[in-house]
Amino acid sequence: MKAKILYIEDNEQNFYLVQFILTAKGHQVSWARDGQSGVEMAGRERFHLILLDIQLPVRNGYLVAQELRRNPALASIPIVALTSYAMAGDREKALAAGCSGYIEKPINPATFAEQIERFLAKTQEGSPQP
pLDDT over 90 for what percent of the chain? Predict the structure, then answer.
């Protein structure tokens, strides 16, 4: 399935690596550089999946996930925390905030696309949510 993905990430190098890997698989990746613009983009456009850094300017990823989950139109879109926060309890904190999954950075380019495909398979019928 070719998907439209929003990546909320403040680090340009991280964005370009993820974009390179996922566009090579045929996906379209949009970029929001901070939590506030990520929430706004998710509300304006239709995405199959949202990748979310936790340590963001303006609004951190936990708050972003909570806000996205309060929007009924976005409730079924998988949100995956993609973060270098890898201490005990960080995964649980991301899931409690509303994330559907958790991937630690640095990502493994050899397996990253496969990890993303598993989350995309959970999106209803492969079409963007209204």
Answer: 84
